[in-house]
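User: Last request for today: this protein with magnesium ion, please.
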Amino acid sequence: MSHPATTPPAPTPPVITIQQASRYDGRTVVIQGWLHNLRRSGKIAFPIVRDGTGFLQCVAVKAQVGEETFERIKHLTHETSLRLTGKLRADERAPGGFEMDVEDVQVIQAVSPDDPFPITPKEHGVDFLLDHRHLWLRSRLQHAVLRVRHSVIRAVRDFFDNDGFTLVDTPILTPAACEGTTTLFEVPYFDEGSAYLAQSGQLYNEATAMAMGKVYCFGPTFRAEKSKTRRHLTEFWMVEPEMPFVDLNDIMDLAERFVESVVARVLDERKEELKTLERDVSKLESVRRPFPRISYDDAVKTLQRKGSEIQWGGDFGNADETLLGEDYDRPILVHRFPTEIKAFYMQPDPTRPEVALGVDMIAPEGYGELIGGGQRIHDYDLLVERLNEHKLPREAFEWFLDLRKYGSVPHGGFGMGVERCVAWICGIEHVRETIAFPRMIYRMKP
Ligand code: 4AD
Ligand code: MG
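Assistant: Here's the final one, the structure of the complex with magnesium ion:
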């Protein structure tokens, strides 16, 4: 009888992500990640590892792993990359519902104790954190926010894709301004002179809507406005639907249905993250249609009653938006703003030309304007008149005027800034934490 020359290798445990833990209860697996935290007490150590999909609490017992491995675990430094082998065990008290009994650890790159990970559990100033944004992203809260952002973006796409809209991406380098040149980033463009980074895809959407029917664009948007508020970035992501054959009411209906569905999707998909963020989800659960619809006229009266200085004809400041939103448990739709303060393309109300058929959606809890949009001018002569009033160069808008010459129809849409939406859903103070690498007037690094 012959014997094999060597014994067959022991089966190697599967490499899994922390998110997959529930499928491996009671089994020995390998997790690849980074050391998030380590508590020690005598002959037992509790490393917490994270791998991008979640955080896993582990237990290493000296008597079980042996002296040498235990020493290695005991001296692990924060953010050291490693591969942990161990058995998963369901535990209700553990954050993700599972714990690992460590059997072995393999260090991939050890963080030097002489140059430790700069972000520690103690308090850091926000400037320090923003300077270290590339590392700050590893923290629990930042991770949770970015996961919510991903769900918001997916919900946005699914909503429009399932509602008969066609995605048509609009250019980022554009020859002209959509809403005035003072807030544009100018870039040199070969022999053509200057190009401007797009601040909205709307004008192009108006063209594609006449070709495709309901359309949306979704991409980065740039604003050079000098707004240093917690709601403004110089680069943000905006989704903009545009529809032919609609009026202001249809646009408000869509905005309401859209926001309701995005919030519901995040509530469904991101319970863990919202818990990590300590978000009061009851505030999100009340985001149900219909949203209150308030005319600008009434909004001004309400604001004056609440002590705002605003006069009819003025635009809302951040404080006004907060005051307006605070009486409601869901977003509100403010419509029919003074034509004077709105963009050149806004359709005036035929019964009251001093107001335009525009709408802003204002979020509750002080998050301000979430959506801006409305009905566009579809009449050729009126649009020419407005271009002149706004001193916009006719030649640059010939193509835009063509849309009013060849089968013009009432149409409109809106834009929603993703970062405002994520900040509101997460309940975080500032939009800068809702995007991986925020761009603000006073910060471009890292
Ligand atoms: O109200 P805005 O300027 O509307 C437009 O650009 C229209 N052309 C959209 C359209 O009708 N297709 O911007 C729309 C939304 C705002 O409600 C806000 O959510 C977000 O974009 N937004 C910003 N987000 C972050 N930082 C900024 N600087 C923003 N400016 C606008
Ligand atoms: Mg606006």
